[in-house]
Amino acid sequence: MHLTEQEKEMLNGAKGNAVKKSMEILVALGEIYGAKKLIDVTSVQIAGVSYDNLGDAGLEFLSEMAKDGKTKVLTTLNPAGMDMENYATLGISEEFAIKQKLVIEAFTKMGVIPTCTCTPYLIGNNPHYGENIAWSESSAVAYANSVLGAKTNREGGPSALASALTGKTPEYGMHLDENRNAKIKIKVECEIKGTHEFGALGKVIGEKVKSKPTYIAGIKKATIEELKSFSASIATYGGAAIFHMEGITPNKTPIPNEEIIITKNEIEKAIKEMRMDDCEIDFISVGCPHASINEIAKLAELLTGKKVTKEFWITTARPTKKIADSAGYTKIIENAGAKFAADTCCVVAPIKGRFKCLATDSAKGCYYAYSKNQSKTKILPLEKLVEEACE
Ligand code: F3S
């Protein structure tokens, strides 16, 4: 891989140990994937923030990088394992909290903004069409490539950090236009409505096409919330980093000849798989990916004057929560007994074994609740979730 003189200096350690280590990671990646050179990035988003996933080895690596590493571009963080302010109310132990705070401190020391959200595009890390970026949260990667038209591979935590500390990434994969073109066409022959149905559609398509870029026709309209749910689901169930939705997403692509038809039956079947029998709901969570202010406003409207009788979390970015505070939504929601879990989510928080049946509107949430936390699931639209919570 060709390196400029300045990049060679970075690799040789002239710019410090963290930059040297970062360049080693990026050059190794570039060589594995056949990149010809490094390119500049304008934005980074780092996953692998929860101490539940990182453990002591991950914390040690971050502390080492934080000795002399400093971010070169706007860099934000994926959710942590807990609400950084309100963790005790959510049942997180002090022992876990101490370690999680050390993780966030290491990132902050390097200049990473501790946003702790998987929807950076809702709170200011919002690259525009054509920008090269290095993001690692899979739902945000699919959203950035497809809905924003920015260009990013699905980075691992260490490679995203390496990009943050150097402002570089190897040029391969999603950074090359030819790899972004659709390989298969999907025709959706039914109306898709609501975050839960868009999540079910992502599951159906993801399971059929795996990680192939798809061209999706037949969707008449989609809100930002529906697109974030779809992005999370297609990435989870298939691994896609990009999709094209006719009339909705901005990228140009040749339309493939091979076509798969999707009908209402398949959407219903997917919903049935995520709406398990023999599942007595004991936990409700909204905000996977992190809730937008629009979703929180809707929840406040639905919860006005009601009382929830089950554990109910709304997971969101702290800046979004602050808007909810000033708009009066938080008060309504908390008066109803639901809880905000900012900075975290029901998948990365250490809650395995605490709940037996999760109700959510998120297909991605269902996947991980079942596979990671061994909880049964019931996917439902937002209105139904509130009804269930207040029963
Ligand atoms: Fe975000 Fe957690 Fe879902 S990171 S996409 S809320 S699993």
UniProtKB/TrEMBL annotation:
| CDD domains for this protein | AcnX
Domain of life, per UniProt, equals: Archaea
Keyword entries, A-Z: Iron, Lyase
Q: How does it assemble?
A: Heterodimer composed of a large subunit (PMDh-L) and a small subunit (PMDh-S).
**Domain Phosphomevalonate dehydratase large subunit-like: residue ranges:** 1-387
The Enzyme Commission number assigned here is 4.2.1.182
Please give the function described in this protein's UniProt entry.
Component of a hydro-lyase that catalyzes the dehydration of mevalonate 5-phosphate (MVA5P) to form trans-anhydromevalonate 5-phosphate (tAHMP). Involved in the archaeal mevalonate (MVA) pathway, which provides fundamental precursors for isoprenoid biosynthesis, such as isopentenyl diphosphate (IPP) and dimethylallyl diphosphate (DMAPP).
List the protein's name.
Answer: Phosphomevalonate dehydratase large subunit
Q: Which family does it belong to?
A: Belongs to the AcnX type II large subunit family.
Q: Which reaction does it catalyse?
A: (R)-5-phosphomevalonate = (2E)-3-methyl-5-phosphooxypent-2-enoate + H2O
What are the protein's GO molecular function terms?
A: lyase activity
Key word Ion transport present in the record?
Answer: no
